[in-house]
Give the backbone structure.
Amino acid sequence: MKRIVILSIAFLMAAGLSGTVFAAPKDSESLDKLNDQIQKKQEQLDEGKQREKELMTTIVDIEQQIDALQAEIANSQEDLKVLEADLKEAQKKVDQQNRDLSARLRNMYKNGSVGFMDVLLNSGSFSDFMTNLDMVQRVYQSDADVLRQMQEAHDEIEQKKQQVEDLRDALMTAEATAEQEVAEVASQKEKLAQSNKATEEAIDDLKDEMTALEAELAAKEANGEISSSDTSEYTGGVFVWPTPGHTTITSGYGWRRCPFHGREFHAALDIGAPSGAAIVASADGKVIHSGWYGGFGKSVIIDHGGGLVTQYNHCSSTIASAGQKVKKGQTIAKVGSTGYSTGPHLDYRVYKNGDVVDPRGYLK
């Protein structure tokens, strides 16, 4: 998953930045750990949801196959009825032909006044005999041909009937197999849905824990237990541009139309730069946070003293670590698109005594 959007954290942080509390390194690490856990759980949930959709698609495909098999079975049963009717009719004709032949033979050889032998013996000459013999043979041959044709028709129908029955049995076996597959996939989907639900509940628990920790940090800040500045005054002069060589502002400080939230107050300068470009500290100071920071993705926050704090968001990677002292112009991170972002850029913010201010008032 390229970017995980933790919506509740993003809204909390984006909406309340004017009173943002920058915690001491230890507390920041706790927030980082919670963010990491939420991110991993969210990735797990996204994968589970995708797999659940794939299983649903599989079930639909198999059910369509079952419908097609049932239609083929119905058609084969109709074909079988037709063949059985044809077979019955052919059997009637064969039986009738056998009865007719048997009756004629009995009449000619036993009860008839004129039989085949009489025809042959009453021949007036050898030529008549041969002619009569040919006639008798033709009669026999005709009867044999009719019987053979009827038998062939009977055999063909029997063969087709067997083919249809074999097809029907194969289709019914395939249908039973498909139904078993549906049951197995449905069982997998149900187990996955339960796992996804458990993951969602775990994410909710982690978010509750984060909210409680942020509330605790806010209370400490209000009571003066956490200082947002490690020196009493700022002596660093004018800030240097945070992305050397890349000065295009893609979204300025102030009201704007956000692709995620609609009309909103944008409390930062978005500076266009390619992924991996260097991000430098705007002034000397102490890093009070380095790592994942909710919807801001990977972020570095520097306390410059005198109530001035700079924040560098959506980094692809962070170089400076929490607690480290950095110099003006020192590389602290790389441009990226982590967190709540639509593409590679630096989200650059400046705070004065805890309130967000326009960064352009401090830059060269």
Observations:
- DSSP finds four helices and 13 strands in the chain.
- The first strand starts at residue 249 and ends at 251.
- Residues 1-26, 224-228 have pLDDT under 50 and may be disordered.
- Residues 82 and 161 are 9 Å apart (CA to CA).
